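Issue 218. Parser rejects a valid record. Input:
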Amino acid sequence: MDASVNKEEKSTQNINQVIKEALFKMSDPTPDMTDEERESYHRKLLAKLESGQKLTSQELAFLRTNDPAAYQKARRMEQKRQWLTEQMKKCKSKQEVSDVVNDAIAHVSEKDPDRNAIIATYREATRSFAKLPVTADFRIPERKPRRKKNAARNDNMPEILTQTAM
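Output the parser choked on:
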């Protein structure tokens, strides 16, 4: 009886191990890379993260499996980018956007180990926000063309003429 339970446990463990390995291979964006290439790719991702650039889902998957601390940092940067973008969308002028960005940068703690990356992320988010086609309504409100007083009177004239003709 114990032998059959042991065999079932071992087969279940083997199946779980096979599934884990298959999932790892599927989620690993660098299956054919050598160790040197992986290290180079990892350094490239860290540099990209420090410069405030947005990481792709494949790059995030690589960090999640190979460097969980860097993955957490990348998630934190993305959350800060999203927060700042939402704040900028609420602004009604370029000056307000500038104030929001400067305020966000001023509130980054001097003691934060990711300070430079956060500031770079804010600046990159500001650059990409400025490139968007009129995301925040910065355009001058369209004014309706003014109608001259005489033109308004002239518009009513045909109605008056037709009413009196009846």
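Fixed in the parser; the record now loads. Residues 2-27 form the longest helix (26 residues).
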